[in-house]
Fold:
Amino acid sequence: MLVHYDQTSDILYYEVLDIPLPELQGSKTLKVAFHHATKDEVVVRSITLPKRSTVGDVINDLKTKVELSHPNAELRLLEVFNHKIYRIFPLSEKIENINDHYWTIRAEEIPEEEKNLGPDDRLIHVYHFIKDTAQNPMNFGEPFFMVMHEGETLAVIKVRIQKKLQVPHEEFAKWKFAFLFQGRPEYLQDSDIVSGHFQGDGPWQEYLGLEHSDNAHI
Structure:
C-alpha cells in the first residue's frame, strides 16, 4: 500500500466514511447546485443515495438540505452545460444514469406561472450572450426558462425579464434582445411578436438571447 510505481512513501492516508463501505459501494453521490427562488445565491449539496434511486428521491432528499421559498415548493432537476439547459430530468429517471462530472446538475423551484400553462403558452429558453472577436455569440451566465404567451411583444417580455433578474434600469437599457437559431442572432424590436419566431426546433438551436456585458452576478 505504500509503494506506487516504484516510489515508496512513509505516509498512509485514510478517510473516515459516514456510512459503511458496502453501503457506499452500492450508492451514488450527485453534486447538485440549488438555485434559490428569491435569493441571488447558489448552494451545492452532495446527495448520496442507492444507485437505483430516482430523480424524485434526489429532490425529496435535497428539500431537507436547502432553504425553500415556501414549504410546498416543487423542485425540478436540470442538466446544464456551457450555459445552456439541455434537459429536465423526469422524476422516474434512475440516478445511476446521470453524469455530474461532465454536466452541471441544477435544482430549482418551479415558478407558479409555469404550472398553469395555457394551450397557446410556451416555455422558452433564455440565455445570456456576448460576441467574440469574430462576432460569434458566446453564452455565459445562468440560463433560465420563461413563459411566453401567444401574441406577446418583446416589450412585455422585457419587463418580466428585468423583474426576474433585478437589473437596474440604466444597465438594462443597454441590453439587446435577439432570437437565435443555430447560433445566428436575429435582433428584435420592442413591437415584435416573439412567439412568431419559435418553431420548436430544440433549446440548443433556438432561444431568446440577452446580449450584454458579462457581469459576474448574472
Remarks:
- The radius of gyration is 21 Å.
- DSSP finds five helices and twelve strands in the chain.
- Residues 154-165 form the longest helix (12 residues).
